[in-house]
Design brief:
This protein has about 290 residues and is an alpha+beta fold. The chain is about 45% helix and about 25% strand.
Amino acid sequence: MNHTMSKLFLISFLAPTVALSAAAQSRPSKQPQSSQSSGQQTSASVSESNSTSASASAGPASAGLASGTTINSELTSTVDARKCQPGQKITAKTTRDVKQNGRVVLHKGTRLVGHVSRVEYRSKENAESAVGIVFDEAIMKDGEHVPFHASIQALGEAQAAADAADDDGGMMAGAAGGAAGGAMGSARGGLLGGGGAVGSVAGNAGAMAGGLDRTAGGAVGAASSTTGATAGRVGGLNAAGQLTSDSRGVFGMQGLNLESSVSNATEGSLITSKSRNVHLSSGTQMLLAVAAQ
């Protein structure tokens, strides 16, 4: 009986010790697994962070427009000092590709969006009309919005209007030349007899002279516009009828003045007139200059 009691006492004393020893032996095998799992999570976090950082750094670099970049464009909406309000949206589109570092960043036809920053209409109390304009972003063909700030560096009449003016001038010159030639032919024909034939030849010669006058006049006008001989203007229209990249001022739009502030992205450009209310029709040419954001 005493021997049995001694065994039971020994077993109850040793059981907790054996259990603690087994638990201690089982713990080391779990630690490496936990450490390995933690290491994998840390590596995944670092990889994800690096990927996010690379993506973020690539975004602005691929979409930004450098300060000083010029953009040939034309209005696709109308601006009228008597009707527009500050904050009103203005739309335009590029008329040629815009390149930066040798690659195209804005394709021809890209939509440009801006807004009116200031409006003053001409009245008895206010002798000068003014409209402030600043451009805010470009909308790519895939729907991507590219933010930038740009002011108007130069303004030019719509190409259709300029072409029509040249055509009218040429037709008038040709008609005048033809009439003069016909009159001379008729007079000579009266003296020499056979005035019909002579008058016809002289009339054709006069029309040809008028055509030459028109061509020469167009060339001289383009050269004069390009050199910008008028005070306060620089550059002008090239042979294609577009504003050159160094143009500054207003071309072919009487009574308008332009104050461009490339360094001030908030106010943009101010178009003023002391003779009438500022009005820019759809199709008006603009040379935009990108300002630092």
